[in-house]
Amino acid sequence: MANTSDVETLNSFLRGEISAVETYRQAIGHVSDERIRSQLEDCLHDHEHRVEAIRERVEKLGGKPAEGSGIWGTFAKLVQGGADLLGEKTAIQALEEGEDHGLADYQRDMDKTHGEARRFVRMELLPSQKRTHERLSRLKKTLH
Asked: Which of the four pLDDT bands, split at 50, 70 and 90, describes residue 41?
């Protein structure tokens, strides 16, 4: 029996993570510096891992995992599209804004989950998102 509230909240996180994956893939395709590309690929893999973990958790709760990024994916494409025209530094800045948004989503909505789902968000998703956010922030600082 699915806890509808937990499934909805986790699916919201899932759409954000799918959006992040889409945005990183797009950005990596426009980055020529191998060091920067490698760091971005590490962040991409972090997001891909969270996509899989959230999908598994939603299924475990008896829910149906979200399949796309929804409106956030459209927004991410617009932001990244503008960044593509302006270069790598702007692309990194757009990605960092996405990381800020993702971190804020986890922190704001974590308490909408209950029991095991809340533990999953607090102990796995949030710390993982913080590490990805830090990695990208460090990368951005090396570009200045």
From this structure: very high
What does pLDDT average to over the chain?
Answer: 87
Residue with structure tokens 């209950």? 114
Residue 143 is classified by DSSP as: T
What one-character-per-residue DSSP string does 85-103 give?
Answer: HH-HHHHHHHHHHHHHHHH
CA neighbor of 70 nearest in space, from 26, 135, 17? 17
User: What confidence score (pLDDT) does residue 40 get?
Assistant: 94
What is the dihedral angle through the alpha carbons of 24, 18, 115, 58, rounded to the nearest 10 degrees?
-150
d(CA 98, CA 104): 10
N residues, the chain: 144
Q: Is-above-0.85 flag for pTM? A: yes
Q: Which residue, 142, 129, 17, is CA-closest to 88?
A: 142
What domains sit in the chain, N to C, each tagged with a CATH number?
Answer: 4-142 (1.20.1260.10)
Separation CA 10–CA 126 (nearest Å) = 12
The residue-averaged pLDDT of 8-28 equals 91
User: How far lies 109's CA from each of 26, 64, 106, in Å?
Assistant: 27, 19, 5
